[in-house]
Design brief:
The complex is a heterodimer of chains A (265) and B (406). With 265 residues, chain A is mainly α. Chain A has nine helices and no strands. Chain B has a domain of 255 residues. Classes of the chains: A mainly alpha (265), B mainly alpha (406). Chain B: Homodimer.
Chain lengths: 265, 406
């Protein structure tokens, strides 16, 4: 335990997220704003979901353990649905913002593309939901203690960190797929995203049995990642082109300077 | 202190700051996000309202209108370009504000979580005489409301007093008051803070070292804040004194009173700024009439401005503290006029910021944003209280943080 555990867990849980933010979001102020606003939307959805769960718990019989467990499952499902609903609301808001930005910009293009906004919004949902799942665990991991000393799994902290990493990535992918599906009107994609979110959430209920929950969740993450990549326009060809992109730039530069000549006349 | 606002090429700079009350009379400004949804009407008015997304809004609005009347024909393209620049730099300015606010909150939260002193209840300020240790909920609520009323009335009285002083040109008194309060903040509170931190980590420090450290810290702070200094050092000092002030509030305000006071202060803020007879507004008007900057050391500025006649034209040189800030709708961009929260007197004074106009062309990036120190303190108290009362739960603190940024 102690600092090693803290930094290790934090690195596992937020390594990808931190890298993504540092390299893609931090330098552009508009993206930072989209990030923070997305986090806020997720928080509101969580607030509503927790209100619903809280009310239902208070109205029910506290003693009945089975009922409380079922209410927990119900609460988780409601939370997932509300998160997706708020993702949709954020989509609507960003759409309007995109139009506004395009309208006031010089050349009619908004300074941030809609795909970028989809990615950043997914990332924001992921970061804030990951933070909310794991920050208390991180805080506890600094202090003295033994994990699972009362008979629970000793792997609790590390599996939580991995789960958080998967969650961050999943939300990012879901964001990209969701926004694209909404734009193109492919509602079956939306349904699949919601279904996979529900599935992931449900898998976590298997939790002390980590093989059954973590492995499928990472598999889902991988699939979603590939799907998001294809949705965003990626392909094997693109990857190869990206890896050997040096010559391409040169020719483009030459074309541009060739274009300059007429203007000078 | 002389301004060349009228002579400088202010038309090209949408973010030129000048105190203006026109925006305060204008219809409510949409938030930054709403502002991005351009209205179809898209007339200049609406566009200027959107400029409120950047913090230089009221000035730019006034400026835009002044320059519009001065220059009769303004191409649409030019306005569009201004808008584009404003939005782009508006976003940048918002981010430039995120960082200091975040830093201040981090300092406050870190201190609250680690130093026990600031969460122990050791009495209350005289401004909140009613205790909250009552058995019944109703009584507690009543006491907190009474505390709030007393605190807000103290603030109102102090603000009015300050406005009167300003109106009757008692500058020496005001300067003396400000210097005294920043002295107290920089020396006394730092001493207490340092003492508590050393106690928490069980580090021994002898008095000569302590004296040296605090003397240096305080002296440099006074110079940086009230006179000239490197911009980042100035910013760092302002963040630190805001954090110290916030910590004091967190310690000495009882729980429910703190939350009610926070709510009441936001309402008071709105009223003081928007009502025609509001003290802050009168202050701004007076200052505008006299065309003067006032009140150093109460505004956080994120960029430097060239001062007239500055010897070294070095970008690293920070300007003097004479800045104006327009007193206008703070609720939209969380940027209400700055407030001087001195420990001795809970004043809320606006700090209209108005740049010492430059003879040179100042680029957009250098037009930073300004945020009143009172806002820093306000936000930090919010987050600090959440951290203190949440008994180890970080989720609450983080949620507060995100909500404040929004």
């Amino acid at each position: 335990m102690g600092a090693a555990a803290f930094f290790g867990l934090a690195g596992i849980a937020f390594g990808p997220a931190l890298a993504l933010v540092l390299f893609t979001v931090a330098s552009e102020p508009l993206r930072v704003i989209v990030l923070v606003a997305g986090a806020f939307f997720w928080l509101v959805s969580l607030l509503l979901a927790s209100l619903i769960w809280f009310v239902s718990v208070h109205l029910s019989d506290r003693e009945d353990a089975k009922l409380q467990y079922n209410l927990l499952i119900f609460g988780a499902a409601v939370s997932v649905l509300l998160q997706e609903a708020f993702r949709f609301a954020y989509f609507k808001l960003l759409k309007k913002a995109d139009e506004g930005l395009a309208m006031v910009s010089e050349d009619g293009h908004s300074p941030i593309s809609f795909r970028q906004m989809a990615y950043v919004s997914g990332l924001s949902f992921g970061i804030i939901s990951g933070v909310f799942s794991v920050i208390n665990i991180l805080a506890d991991s600094i202090g003295p203690g033994t994990v699972g000393i009362h008979g629970d799994s000793p792997y609790y902290f590390i599996t939580s960190a991995f789960l958080t990493m998967a969650l961050v990535l999943l939300h990012t992918f879901w964001g990209v797929i969701f926004f694209d599906a909404c734009e193109k009107g492919r509602y079956w994609c939306l349904g699949l995203v919601v279904a996979s979110h529900l599935l992931t959430s449900g898998l976590t209920f298997l939790n002390p049995w980590y093989e059954a929950s973590l492995v499928p969740i990472f598999f889902i993450t991988l699939c979603m990642g590939l799907w998001a990549f294809v949705t965003a326009g990626g392909s094997l060809h693109n990857i190869l082109k990206c890896l050997s992109c040096k010559q391409q730039d040169d020719s483009r530069v030459m074309m541009y300077s060739a274009l300059q000549v007429p203007f000078e006349d | 202190m002389i301004t060349f606002m009228n002579n400088s090429d202010s038309e090209e700079e949408p973010c030129n700051e000048r105190t203006s009350l026109m925006s305060a009379e204008s219809p409510p400004v949409p938030s930054y996000q709403d502002g991005l949804q351009a209205s179809e009407a898209g007339e200049a008015q609406a566009r200027r309202k959107r400029r409120a997304g950047s913090s230089c809004s009221p000035n730019s609005i006034a400026d835009g209108e002044v320059s519009d009347s001065g220059v009769p024909v303004r191409g649409n393209a030019l306005e569009n370009e201004e808008e584009e620049l404003t939005l782009k730099y508006g976003a940048k300015h918002v981010i430039m504000l995120f960082v200091p606010v975040t830093l201040c909150m981090i300092v406050v939260v870190a201190t609250i979580k680690s130093v026990r002193f600031y969460t122990e209840k050791n009495g209350q300020l005289i401004y909140t005489p009613f205790s909250e240790d009552t058995p019944s909920v109703g009584q507690r609520l009543l006491n907190s409301v009474l505390n709030t009323i007393i605190m807000i009335s103290v603030i109102v009285v102090m603000t009015v007093f300050l406005v009167l002083l300003y109106k009757y040109r008692c500058y020496k008194f005001i300067h003396g008051w400000l210097i005294l309060s920043s002295l107290m903040l920089l020396f006394l509170f730092t001493y207490i803070y340092l003492g508590e931190v050393l106690k928490t980590y069980n580090v021994a420090m002898d008095y000569p070292t302590l004296f040296l450290v605090i003397w240096n810290f305080g002296a440099v702070g006074m110079i940086c804040i009230h006179w000239k200094g490197p911009l980042q050092l100035q910013q760092a000092y302002l963040i630190m004194i805001s954090a110290l002030m916030a910590l004091v509030f967190i310690k000495y305000l009882p729980e429910w009173s703190a939350w009610v006071i926070l709510g009441a202060i936001s309402i008071y803020d709105l009223m003081a700024v928007l009502c025609p007879k509001g003290p802050l507004r009168m202050l701004v008007e007076t200052a505008q009439e006299r065309n003067e900057p006032i009140f150093p050391a109460l505004i956080y500025s994120s960029a430097m401005m060239w001062t007239v006649g500055m010897a070294k034209q070095d970008t690293a040189r920070g300007p003097s503290q004479q800045t104006w800030d327009a007193a206008e709708d703070g609720r939209e961009n969380h940027r209400s006029p700055s407030h001087a929260d001195s420990q001795m007197s809970e004043t809320r004074s606006p700090v209209p910021t108005h740049p010492i106009a430059s003879l040179e062309e100042v680029e957009e990036e250098e037009r930073g944003v300004k945020l009143g120190l009172g806002d820093f303190i306000f936000y930090s108290v919010l987050v600090g209280k959440a951290a203190a009362t949440a008994s180890g739960d970080w989720n609450t603190t983080l949620a507060c943080f995100v909500a404040i940024l929004i």
